[in-house]
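Running this now, will post back.
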Amino acid sequence: MTAEPIAALRPVGRFNAIYPYLLLALCMLFWSGNWVIGRALRDTMPPVALTFWRWVVAALLLAPFALPRLRGKGTLLRRSWLLLLGLAVTGGALNQVAAYFALRHTETVNAVLLNAASPLFILLASWFFDGERTSLRQLLGMALSLGGVLVIMNRGDLSQLLGLHFSIGDLALLAAMPLWAFYTIMLRRRPRGIDYIELIFLLGAFGLVALAPAYALEAIYIPPPPLSWSLVGASLYMGAFASVGAYLCWNKGAELVGANRAGFTTYLMPAFATILAVLLLDEQVHLFHLIGITTIILGIWIATSARRAIAADQVEPL
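Update: finished.
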């Protein structure tokens, strides 16, 4: 299956140029909260169960909107089921299971540092599948943003990098990076007859089918925890915001600006995590926080600020 031809491009207004990055930034905010919750539940909910119930909530929320839209599209679904299954497994199922598994076996510092490698895998996947080349601006922006991540994670003392130790959780997270890169690249090949609400619902449905055997096997060895309000609240957040909201923002933003540029916004996650800690956990702001966040934003701006026209008909409601 090949990518569809790109429509004729023409310059657009300032808002349309900023709009995709606002979506991607909102996505990173939602995912920052997901990482915090996933780490907090590491000893309560096993990774497959956490992923499974996250997508149950997402599918139930989207079903009233998606199912009516999918009527009469049986032929399209039969023709595209393999691609949809691949997107669900790589971007929704295995990727999330690996991330939650990693959070059970590694420190948050290691996890965020390794997650900063995600843009590199997207660049490599773009080159391998679509022949896209990486510019010097993108490489410079990636280096600057990674430097900002290191400043925040090591509290301004980069010598702490020598004390980092990597575990099986780190390897699991690193293995998830190619899966997410594949998902991001394959998004542009989605059937145009399926909008993003339908797509995320189908990701949830296909993902649940793929996860069900692993969930049943996991439950044999790790009994499910008793139901509590904290677990219900966490599942609702992950389903509504980290799945539905974040994937809507990511899918649309990546379509508008391209996989490479979208990948660079991943560096916003540690910045948002820092801000959330200050607002919700009453932590203090230090100079290294400001330096790190400023450096991250500067790197993203350098990597994504080269002129790129967006088709006017691409800027449409989610």
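The two ends are 25 Å apart (CA to CA). More later if anyone needs it.
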